[in-house]
Every structure is written in C-alpha cells, then in structure tokens.
Amino acid sequence: MTARSVAMSVVLDVHEDDVFANLALPSRLQQARLSTADAAFATELTYGTLRWQGQYDAVIEALASRPITQIDPEPLAALRIGMHQIAR
Questions:
Q1: Is the pTM here over 0.85, yes or no?
Q2: Nearest-angstrom CA–CA distance, 88 and 9
Q3: CATH of domain 3-87
Q4: CA 78, CA 15: separation in Å to the nearest integer?
Q5: Closest by alpha carbon to 80, among 70, 68, 23?
Q6: Per-position b or e across 27-52, b if 16+ CB within 10 A of its CB
Q7: pLDDT in tens, 11-57
Q8: Best label site of 13, 22, 53, 65, fewest CB within 10 Å?
C-alpha cells in the first residue's frame, strides 16, 4: 500500500461512511507499514485534502460543469487529493 492509497482510502471513508479521519488514519498507516516519510506524506495528503476540500470542490465543480454530488466517489476523492498535491 502506498501513501496515496492510504490517503485515498481514508478520504473515501470519511465521505462515504462518516468515519473520523483521526480515528481511521492511524490504523491504515499501521496496516500499510509505510516508512516514516511515507506515513508523514499520507498524513499530510489526508488531512490537507479534508481541510481544503471546500475550495477544491468549488474548482472541481466549475471545471466539471456539474454538481459534486453527481461525480462518483472514487474519482472525486482522487481529484481532491490531486488538487491538494498541486496546490500545496
């Protein structure tokens, strides 16, 4: 499992299952057995994406020309995480 896949799974869990990121992320990091650097990267991707989600969603929605609610969860999570990597 990579840092990005850990972040993706937690971001999806937060939005699909109303999971708290601060509870889900530590167990995912432990399961993934990432290096310290990769665990830090996954943590920043997860929390940063969730922190800035409102702004990312506004951009995604404008570019997609449709409401966020009409975008499938997996591509939407990937877009949010990708935007976070580009923006920060």
A1: yes
A2: 20
A3: 1.10.940.10
A4: 13
A5: 68
A6: ebbeebebeeebbebbbbbbbbbbee
A7: 999 999 999 999 999 999 999 999 999 999 999 999 999 999 999 99
A8: 65
Rounded distance between C-alpha atoms, residue 71 and residue 88, angstroms? 23
- Enter the tokens of residue 79: 């877009």
For the chain, the distance separating the N- and C-terminal CA atoms, rounded to the nearest angstrom, is: 23
- 3-state SS class at 23: helix
Residue (of 85, 59, 61, 31) closest to 9 by Cα position: 31
Read off the tokens for 62. 């404008």
Helix, strand, coil: what percent of the chain each, to 5? 85, 0, 15
Closest Cα partner for 6 from 29, 30, 40, 37? 29
